[in-house]
């Protein structure tokens, strides 16, 4: 395997690399739209990288490699959870993302006071190790209603709509068309034709102490304000407002309505065709057979 | 009925209309603040439209009509759910909304690489069929803490405050003063003097399979992280964290505390003076008589 | 006590003060990084203020004092809830915050139409009495993934990470390192080493009728989509999806698993070492002894 990439880096006035944009990548024959740099005079440094496949399995130890791996995810050359991202946080500098480009934290105070005195508005959008995806890559056939809520490193498939309340972290995303009004945590992938309702939550592995990778199958619905702490199979629904964790005790009913006993959430991981609800008469969380079918509204996913 | 409108359109370099701003509308004698275009030389195309009342009942089949109807809603010439919006999604192009104006998706890759090489920061705020309301219209006596979360087509009445966590879709909004820290889905209207707590959800009809128009009456409170799947009457409270759907089974108590039996949420649609809570001893969802009164903090709604 | 401050004010074309930026403050000997104004020619008015300690106890009656008090909080010269903020809302004008600086509401319609005709994009980020914190102050060793969600007047300690779903109001914040993916309402403080999960809510006192100041102790976890309506002690966990209010009835269990009876949430205020969950078999909210330890991921808080 051969990976070739051309990048454009931004630096602080002291020469520290703040971010690297890779408009051109040849990933073992699969190529980005842009094939060569336009012929502008630029003060930016151009970086050329050549990697073998084994580089994807190595931990990250510098900012250039960190940015390249995030680009590989967002160009969809590699799937979430398929490459080594160890060392990512330590390699990425915390950067001030502004309407005047990336600025070093060490230089922001002076820039800010200058902008106020000279009436040159400096708008700080974010102070973070990760930039928004769309500062670098515009995925095809996708809508992102609030670009500040999708990080570089997100993997977004055609037909995906990220509404204002949606969020997608790096190393996470959608494998097909999807309506995302909830939060896709780092490491989480959502299957084709699934819908994450407004404010719905998927548990991540970066904070909160959870060690199991969460995922959402195909044709699933996480209801508004619901939450998910297990890998969910296909054709499943989590009722609006219900937070399902690995430890939730759930009474399981078969298709005829007969109880099969009580299971922990983790025991129902990757099970298909289930509707999870909290009985509003007695507070009991139950799972029953899903007889409906989640259908995405096609109007909302023709994103051209 | 006679509607006259003057618009300014933005086009892609290939001449495709990306968006139309209507600063001047005469809606059967009711007029926008701006009465005539200032006398600047402009490269933009000026559009003049004359509609009869029957045009409001027709489906939408072009981008100009789509933008005009969204403006009619946001100028509050027409109420949500009162005009025909069929064809809206198909008529609106997916546009890249940037600090350099609206850009065609077909042209964004080149613009992005150019901006990086030449250090002209291009900030992509959104990739969506709908622009933020405030790119076009500033409603009077309203606060909107994060402008990216209110779409053109929102109907916002004086005294409305949309906090950072608030959201208002097109064809939806507030009929009087209101505190909005939750999400107003498309088709949903909120009555005077009501409060949508932080992260509260109202079910929409665009996705999720719901067919009943949700609304919130006057003097209501949706608690933080609560949710609403029925039309709510006046003087009602949904407890923080409770998601009330059309299918929720609810034990109803009268003013003396006597049970009136168990009802589905949909059977309590538009009922007044109810407090919905989940009993924390036994998990049962109940509705009892509301004896308190929701009072908005007047300091928060004097938005001048 | 002696407070000296140098500010730069922005005014409307009619001379109304819209906002004041205080880059230089000497708070009884503690000083901001910036010690003197750079020597630029500026059209902005420079304001010099000298206060005694008693000024902190006075209500606010003008925009300059309002901005100075918000700066004192965000520079961490004073703690939340320690100075008199009465009169704040009445003193702050509602301002349009744009990529061209602060604009008066009275002048925005003309600016907007001009920008469209002349292709000078005017991006309205917010219409609010409060600007984003980072328009004025960049706290050290902090990440803020979406700058629009932290208001001036927020108090953020080193090691704090505010994720995209996090929010911090004025007169509120973190007393040590913290992961904030939930909402810190006005008046709320979060102790060292605590984690507010995605979409979690803390009840504020500005709206919603609550009169008790909410706080989160040290080493606490509010699970995703949970909520808090009582002051929480140290080493406590509120389970994902559970909204704990002052009125929630909670069965308390001791370390041996014996019931100690049923308490109202308010009776458990400031108690330590508790895990609050809703039993998923019977819907009962219970509190039991916390035997685990909340550990923040150190990678996420090395924000340099």
Provide an overview of this structure:
Three copies of one chain form a homotrimer. Chain A has 304 residues and is mainly β. Chain A has three domains: 2-91, Alpha-Beta Plaits (2-Layer Sandwich), CATH 3.30.70; 95-128, 2-Layer Sandwich (Wheat Germ Agglutinin (Isolectin 2), domain 1); 133-301, UDP N-Acetylglucosamine Acyltransferase, domain 1. The first copy, chain A, has three helices and 26 strands. In chain A, the strands form six sheets. The first copy, chain A, has a ten-stranded mixed sheet, with no helix packed on it. Chain A has a four-stranded antiparallel sheet with strand order 3-2-1-4, with helices on one face. The first copy, chain A, is elongated. Chain A starts with a strand and ends in a 15-residue tail after the last strand. Chains A and B meet through strand 8 of A and helix 3, strand 7 and strand 23 of B.
Instruction: Please state roughly what percent of the residues of chain A sit in beta strands, choosing from under 5%, 5-15%, 15-25%, 25-35%, 35-45% or over 45%.
Output: 25-35%
User: What's the SSE pattern of chain A?
Assistant: EEEEHHEEHEEEEEEEEEEEEEEEEEEEE
Count of separate DSSP helical elements of chain A: 3
Strand order of the main beta sheet of chain A, please? 8-10-13-16-19-21-25-26-23-24
Q: Largest chain interface and its two residue counts?
A: A-B, 61 and 55 residues
The overall pLDDT of chain A, averaged over residues, is: 95
In short, what is this structure?
Chain A is mainly beta and 304 residues long. The first copy, chain A, has helices spanning 63-74, 88-91, 108-117, and strands spanning 2-11, 17-27, 30-31, 45-52, 95-98, 101-104, 124-128, 143-144, 154-155, 160-162, 167-168, 172-174, 178-180, 183-184, 189-190, 194-196, 201-202, 215-216, 221-222, 227-228, 237-238, 243-244, 249-253, 259-264, 274-278, 285-289.
């Amino acid at each position: 395997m051969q990976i070739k990439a051309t990048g454009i880096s931004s630096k602080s006035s002291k020469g520290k690399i703040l971010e690297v944009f890779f408009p051109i990548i040849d990933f073992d024959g699969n190529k980005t739209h842009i094939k060569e740099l336009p012929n502008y005079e630029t003060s930016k440094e151009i970086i050329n990288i050549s990697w073998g496949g084994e580089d994807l399995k190595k931990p990250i130890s510098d900012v250039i490699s960190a940015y390249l791996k995030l680009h590989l995810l967002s160009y969809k050359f590699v799937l979430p959870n398929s490459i080594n991202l160890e060392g990512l946080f330590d390699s990425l500098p915390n950067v001030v993302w502004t309407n005047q480009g990336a600025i070093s934290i060490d230089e922001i105070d002076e820039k800010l006071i200058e902008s106020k005195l000279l009436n040159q508005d400096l708008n700080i959008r974010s102070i973070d190790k990760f930039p928004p995806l769309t500062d670098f890559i515009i995925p095809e056939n996708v809508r992102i209603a609030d670009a500040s809520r999708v990080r570089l490193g997100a993997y977004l498939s055609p037909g995906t709509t990220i509404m204002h309340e949606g969020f997608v972290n790096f190393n996470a995303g959608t494998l097909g068309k999807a309506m995302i009004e909830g939060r896709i945590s780092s490491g989480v992938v959502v299957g084709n034709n699934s819908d994450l309702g407004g404010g719905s939550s998927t548990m991540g592995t970066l904070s909160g102490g959870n060690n199991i990778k969460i995922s959402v199958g195909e044709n699933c619905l996480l209801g508004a304000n619901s939450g998910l702490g297990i890998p969910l199979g296909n054709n499943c629904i989590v009722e609006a407002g219900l937070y399902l964790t690995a430890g939730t005790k759930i009474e399981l009913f078969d298709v005829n309505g007969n109880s099969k006993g009580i299971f922990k959430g983790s025991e129902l991981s990757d099970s298909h065709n289930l509707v999870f609800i909290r009985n509003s008469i007695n507070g009991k969380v139950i799972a029953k057979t899903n007889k409906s079918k989640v259908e995405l509204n096609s109007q909302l996913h023709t994103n051209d």
